[in-house]
């Protein structure tokens, strides 16, 4: 709504008709916007809803423009009333018309005041403050949740690193154990081979001892045979 520069008004000019039409259209428009604003008030979070904020600014702007126009109309009415008997043109404005214009002015002011009251009533303020608080709580929750997720993610990274370290450590232990088993198996194999060698040596020694025993037995038998022959010789000699 464009401002009308009507605060300077000549006694020969009556712009009321133009102003009346402009204000009437503006009031119709502001009521339409108010209805949209009121729907958003009840259906959305007013603190975060961009349309609600836009309509709020638009309504306040229109209220300001309409009030300026109504003030200009009020000033024009005062001029008409003060010069009704002095100016020929104003004399042509009947008292009923003046009364009608004053009624229009009064009704228009009441219409705007009612909208202003609706915009700032206790329930509206309560809803707006509640939405603001909810939005802050939601943001705080998101921040807290994001921080919690960050900590959780960091812990998961640490857990993964720890598990990887444990896996590497266990792998190194297993490699070490495998090497030790290889060494042990090598030692066992060596001991087994030594045992076989010793067993072979013992078998050879046993064979040698067996042969020696056989020879000793044969020698003893031969000696005994010779001794018996000597005994028989001695017996025959002394007879």
TrEMBL record:
<dbReference type="Pfam" id="PF09177">
    <property type="entry name" value="STX6_10_61_N"/>
</dbReference>
<keyword id="KW-0472">Membrane</keyword>
<dbReference type="GO" id="GO:0015031">
    <property type="term" value="P:protein transport"/>
</dbReference>
<dbReference type="GO" id="GO:0016020">
    <property type="term" value="C:membrane"/>
</dbReference>
<comment type="similarity">
    <text>Belongs to the syntaxin family.</text>
</comment>
<keyword id="KW-0812">Transmembrane</keyword>
<dbReference type="InterPro" id="IPR000727">
    <property type="entry name" value="T_SNARE_dom"/>
</dbReference>
<keyword id="KW-0175">Coiled coil</keyword>
<dbReference type="GO" id="GO:0048193">
    <property type="term" value="P:Golgi vesicle transport"/>
</dbReference>
<feature type="domain" description="T-SNARE coiled-coil homology">
    <location>
        <begin position="171"/>
        <end position="233"/>
    </location>
</feature>
<keyword id="KW-0813">Transport</keyword>
<feature type="coiled-coil region">
    <location>
        <begin position="63"/>
        <end position="125"/>
    </location>
</feature>
<keyword id="KW-1133">Transmembrane helix</keyword>
<dbReference type="InterPro" id="IPR010989">
    <property type="entry name" value="SNARE"/>
</dbReference>
<protein>
    <submittedName>
        <fullName>ORFveg109</fullName>
    </submittedName>
</protein>
<dbReference type="InterPro" id="IPR015260">
    <property type="entry name" value="Syntaxin-6/10/61_N"/>
</dbReference>
<dbReference type="GO" id="GO:0005794">
    <property type="term" value="C:Golgi apparatus"/>
</dbReference>
<keyword id="KW-0333">Golgi apparatus</keyword>
<keyword id="KW-0653">Protein transport</keyword>
């Amino acid at each position: 709504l464009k401002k009308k520069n009507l605060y300077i008004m000549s006694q020969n000019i009556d712009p009321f008709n133009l102003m009346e039409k402009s204000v009437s259209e503006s009031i119709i428009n502001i009521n339409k916007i108010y209805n949209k604003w009121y729907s958003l008030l009840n259906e959305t979070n007013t603190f975060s809803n961009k349309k609600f904020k836009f309509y709020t600014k638009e309504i306040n702007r229109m209220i300001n423009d309409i009030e300026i126009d109504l003030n200009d109309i009020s000033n024009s009415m005062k001029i008409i009333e003060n010069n009704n008997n002095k100016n020929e043109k104003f004399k042509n404005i009947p008292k009923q018309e003046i009364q009608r214009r004053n009624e229009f002015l009064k009704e228009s002011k009441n219409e705007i005041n009612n909208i202003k009251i609706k915009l700032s009533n206790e329930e509206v303020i309560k809803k707006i403050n509640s939405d603001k608080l909810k939005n802050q709580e939601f943001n705080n929750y998101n921040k807290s949740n994001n921080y919690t997720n960050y900590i959780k993610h960091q812990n998961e990274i640490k857990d993964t690193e720890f598990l990887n370290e444990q896996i590497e450590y266990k792998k190194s232990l297993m490699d070490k154990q495998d090497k030790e088993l290889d060494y042990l198996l090598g030692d066992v194999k060596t001991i087994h081979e030594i045992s076989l060698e010793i067993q072979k040596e013992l078998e050879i020694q046993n064979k040698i001892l067996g042969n020696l025993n056989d020879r000793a037995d044969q020698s003893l038998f031969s000696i005994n045979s010779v001794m018996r022959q000597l005994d028989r010789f001695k017996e025959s000699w002394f007879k």
